[in-house]
């Protein structure tokens, strides 16, 4: 699953960190039981000469609310300067693991490599 959001008034690193830290809330269960989350260090890189920062959250011990919920997940966030309506563009990639048909990390890397200014 992928999505994008805009942020104003904060720098790239702060925008990416705030979004990746949402993994804990996103993967908590209905009773509020929190999963285990390990965060990567920031990975800074360029997208067509523009700065970007990437964080990954590896989420385990996800309590299933339904039989389709994953036991673990990867949650990636990339922030880069935005255009038009926001100062910062935040790309979010949620990759469920331990479910039938789950995609590997190469999907995340492919999505990130395809980011281009428009």
Your description of this structure?
It is built from three helices and six strands, in the order βααβββββα. It has 118 residues and is α+β, with helices and mostly antiparallel strands. The chain has one domain (2-114). Strands 1, 2, 3, 4, 5 and 6 form a six-stranded antiparallel β-sheet that branches. Strand 5 (72-81) and strand 6 form a beta hairpin. The two termini are 21 Å apart.
Give a nutshell description of this structure.
The protein is of the alpha+beta class and 118 residues long. The chain has helices at residues 12-20, 23-26, 105-113, and strands spanning 2-7, 36-39, 43-47, 50-60, 72-81, 88-97.
Number of DSSP-assigned strands: 6
Low-confidence stretches at least 5 residues in length (pLDDT < 50)? Answer: none
β-strand percent reads 35-45%
Number of helices: 3
What is the global morphology? Answer: globular
Number of domains: 1
Question: Which structural category do the helix and sheet elements fall into?
Answer: alpha+beta
* Rg on CA atoms, Å: 15 Å
C-alpha end-to-end distance: 21 Å
Order of helices and strands: EHHEEEEEH
Protein name: DUF8017 domain-containing protein
Pfam family, one: DUF8017
Organism: Rhodococcus rhodnii
InterPro entries: DUF8017
């Amino acid at each position: 699953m992928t999505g994008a959001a805009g942020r104003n008034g904060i720098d790239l690193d702060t925008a990416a960190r705030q979004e990746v830290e949402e993994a804990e809330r996103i993967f908590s269960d209905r009773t509020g039981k929190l999963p285990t989350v390990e965060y990567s260090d920031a990975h800074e890189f360029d997208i067509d000469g523009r700065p970007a920062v990437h964080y990954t959250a590896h989420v385990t011990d996800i309590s299933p609310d339904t039989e389709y919920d994953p036991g673990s997940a990867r949650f990636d966030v990339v922030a880069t300067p935005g255009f038009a309506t926001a100062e910062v563009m935040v790309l979010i990639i949620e990759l469920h693991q331990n479910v039938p048909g789950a995609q590997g990390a190469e999907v995340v890397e492919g999505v990130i490599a395809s980011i281009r200014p428009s």
